[in-house]
Write a structure and sequence with these properties.
There is one protein chain. The protein is an alpha+beta fold. The chain has helices spanning 6-15, 31-41, 67-73, 81-89, 171-181, 196-203, 212-220, 299-317, 348-359, 378-387, 391-394, and strands spanning 19-22, 46-49, 59-61, 96-97, 106-109, 131-132, 135-140, 147-150, 154-156, 161-164, 186-192, 225-228, 235-237, 242-260, 266-282, 288-290, 323-328, 336-341, 365-370, 395-402, 414-422. Strands 5, 6, 7, 8, 9, 10, 11, 14 and 15 form a nine-stranded antiparallel beta sheet that branches. Strands 17-18-19-21-20 form a five-stranded mixed beta sheet, sandwiched between helices. It starts with 5 loop residues before the first helix and ends in a 22-residue tail after the last strand. It binds manganese (II) ion. Manganese (II) ion is lined by residues 148, 150, 171, 206, 212. Manganese (II) ion (MN) binds at residues 148, 150, 171, 206, 212.
Length: 444
């Protein structure tokens, strides 16, 4: 059964012992993130902070910080999450438009619009200030009118302004560029506090033109109910806790950051687009949701790992039917992929490396191992790297390649991406040494 909304998921997690309410007072600056950081590091529960200094609104975070909870959000178990995601992506369900929606219980316009009413957290020590990290940004292709939903970080820049970080390869940026080229603003809505299937779908880098809300419908096996915004021509999930409506302004840029994102170090941008907010609507007693990111492993890494691994598998399986499994690992910040392959011709692994690097524009490194290596077992992968790689013939380096996000180890926009063929060289006879009966031994 799908979750109706964020509240339904919170209640479910609490019953499962996967969410704890924090009743003592915390500060929105570091206090919320401190709790989520510690719980993320020890596989602990999600946290619902009910008492935030200076605010009446609670904040929930860390919902996706374990594989177990992320799988629960999809109504499945961690070993089946990739399969479930791919099934949903191929069983899209269009959203259902409704006229009455919980997210309209309170409507703030004009002078009432004030981001300072919301306990927007500051996560890391040197972050420039409060950031919205758990919002799903919805915008529309000006020509096809197809909506896109994605997750982008936004820095609060006053009571009714945000600066939004969206890279050149992002779908939101494509919409914005089309409008800005004609000198026009781009309307958008930011939905915060959602049924978790919508977050998982929005985190997925599905092809351009595919509305992530339809993927969410597939994940829920039930259409997402959506409602029209008040001041922009966009539809948003009806059960959103909070919806921020506004426009991305043409030909205006403001500095963004520093902000500690998925690489676990501070990033900043000299000029990113500015959002002018036109309305905020919310439910009675809304819950603000933050998505924590930073040094791995956080919920941001898990959301990326699940969706990227699934999409990578789907991308390569028709050309490389011998691919057994894909792991775009959370610890690798979604930049490292390991694939296992049963090769059908010598050095097929190198072809696979080129295909994956060509297709997945976030990746820096692709390792291909044989089918006897479990790609989710770091020990086995390292053993394969130690015993099956002859560096001069098995490492492919492609210099000066663009990536979907700046590379912390490179100056400028270009970096090098590389592949490691860690499969057994076909001319060698290689046997993984086993002790007969070891798997059946039991302590008497
Ligand atoms: Mn998209």
């Amino acid at each position: 059964m799908p979750f109706r909304d964020l509240r339904h998921f919170i209640d479910f997690l609490e019953c499962e012992g996967e969410l704890v309410r924090v009743t003592r007072q915390v500060n929105a600056k570091f206090g919320i993130a401190g709790g989520i950081r510690k719980m993320s590091d020890q596989n602990g529960p999600a946290l619902l902070f009910q008492n935030i200094e200076g605010y009446k609104i609670p904040v929930v975070g860390g919902l996706f910080a374990t594989w177990n909870r992320t799988a629960m959000a999809l109504g499945t178990t961690s070993d089946k999450a990739v399969e479930k995601f791919l099934k949903a992506k191929n069983n899209l369900l269009k959203p259902k438009l409704v006229s009455k929606a919980p997210c309209k219980e309170c409507i703030l316009t004009e002078e009432e619009v004030d981001l300072r009413k919301f306990p927007i957290p500051t996560h890391h020590e040197r972050d420039a200030g409060p950031y919205i990290t758990g919002g799903v940004q919805v915008s529309k292709d000006p020509q096809t009118k197809i909506q896109n939903a994605g997750i982008y970080r936004q820095q609060v820049k006053g009571r009714s302004n945000l600066v939004i970080h969206c890279s050149k390869t992002s779908h939101l940026r494509r919409h914005f560029d089309m409008m800005e080229n004609q000198g026009n603003p781009l309307e958008l809505a930011i939905a915060i506090g959602l049924d978790p299937a919508i977050h998982i779908a929005a985190a997925a880098k599905v092809p351009y033109g595919l509305d992530e809300i339809e993927v969410a419908g597939g994940l829920r096996e039930n259409p997402v109910e959506v409602v029209k915004c008040e001041t922009v021509d966009i539809t948003v999930p009806a059960t959103s806790e909070i919806v921020i409506e506004g426009k991305m302004l043409p030909n205006i840029r403001e500095p963004e950051g520093p902000f500690a994102d998925i690489c676990g170090q501070y990033e900043s941008t000299p000029g990113d687009p500015v959002i002018q907010i036109s309305a905020i609507t919310h439910r009675y007693n809304p819950i603000f949701q933050t998505i924590f990111t930073g040094f791995p492993i956080t919920e941001n890494h898990i959301l990326n790992s699940l969706t990227q691994s699934a999409l990578c598998y789907e991308d390569v399986i028709s050309t490389f039917p011998g691919v057994k499994a894909v792991n775009i690992s959370p610890a690798g910040c979604s930049f490292h992929a390991v694939l296992s392959l049963k090769q059908s011709y010598p050095s097929e692994a190198k072809r696979l490396i080129l295909a994956v690097l060509g297709k997945m524009n976030l990746l820096r490194r692709v390792v291909v191992v044989d089918e006897d290596i479990d790609v989710f077992d770091d020990l086995m992968v390292e053993w394969a790297l130690a015993t099956r790689v002859n560096a001069e013939q098995d490492i492919i380096v492609l210099p000066r390649v663009g990536r979907a996000r700046p590379d912390p180890s490179a100056t400028g926009a270009l970096t090098s991406v590389y592949g490691i063929d860690a499969t057994i060289p076909c001319e060698l006879n290689f046997d993984l040494a086993k002790v007969p009966g070891a798997d059946k031994f039991e302590i008497p």
